């Protein structure tokens, strides 16, 4: 079996190793850019799904390159970004061990699609998720409690993140 690399070259790119099933179907924002307090508040991540690939013909703007001002064909990825809805807010405190969650405030009305994510088996469940929490908004004491939580988030938290979900189309 000498000179095997010429007769039987390897199959597949080493860039795709290890070959295994993906850990999650949905993508996840694993890291966020450094927060700059001089700039106004903004969302730093957005959920997108890979929908496929295609190619484009574009003009290269790279002075010094052989392809400068010439058209070239390149592969592109199509990412589908469905509209998102904010369903809650989480406040984090900076601790020596990293970020620690202070509290979470949920929206009053959550769609059925969001509630489905909190159940292992939606069909067999009684669909009671967030029913008691949404009643807080109806009572005066509950509203005051939620407002107090939001004020506490504004006062003490160093990082505030929103909980969002995509809208099915």
UniProtKB/TrEMBL annotation:
Disordered: annotated span: 1-37
Keywords: Ribonucleoprotein, Ribosomal protein
InterPro entries: L3_arc_euk (IPR045077), Ribosomal_L3_dom_3_arc_sf (IPR044892), Ribosomal_uL3 (IPR000597), Transl_B-barrel_sf (IPR009000)
Domain of life: Eukaryota
Signal peptide per UniProt: none
Pfam families xrefs: Ribosomal_L3
Ranges of biased composition (kind: Basic residues): 18-31
GO cellular component terms, A-Z: cytosolic large ribosomal subunit
GO biological process, one term: translation
Gene Ontology MF terms in the entry: RNA binding; structural constituent of ribosome
Keyword Translocase: no
Family indicated by similarity: Belongs to the universal ribosomal protein uL3 family.
Name of the protein described by the UniProt record: Ribosomal protein L3
Organism in which the protein naturally occurs: Salix viminalis (Common osier)
């Amino acid at each position: 079996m000498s000179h095997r690399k010429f007769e039987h070259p390897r199959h597949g790119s080493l860039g795709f190793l290890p070959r295994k099933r993906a850990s999650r179907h949905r993508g996840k924002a694993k890291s966020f850019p450094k927060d700059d307090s001089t700039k106004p508040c903004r969302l730093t991540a957005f959920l997108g799904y890979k929908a496929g690939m295609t190619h484009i013909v574009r003009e290269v703007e790279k002075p010094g390159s052989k392809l400068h001002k010439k058209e070239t064909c390149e592969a592109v990825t199509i990412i589908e970004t469905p509209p998102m809805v904010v369903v809650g807010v989480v406040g984090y405190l900076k601790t020596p061990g990293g970020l620690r969650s202070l509290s979470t405030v949920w929206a009053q009305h959550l769609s059925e699609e969001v509630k489905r994510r909190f159940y292992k088996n939606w069909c067999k469940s009684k669909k009671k998720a967030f029913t008691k929490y949404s009643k807080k908004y109806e009572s005066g004491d509950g509203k005051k409690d939620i407002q107090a939580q939001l004020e506490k988030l504004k006062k003490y938290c160093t990082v505030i993140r929103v909980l969002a979900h995509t809208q099915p189309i």
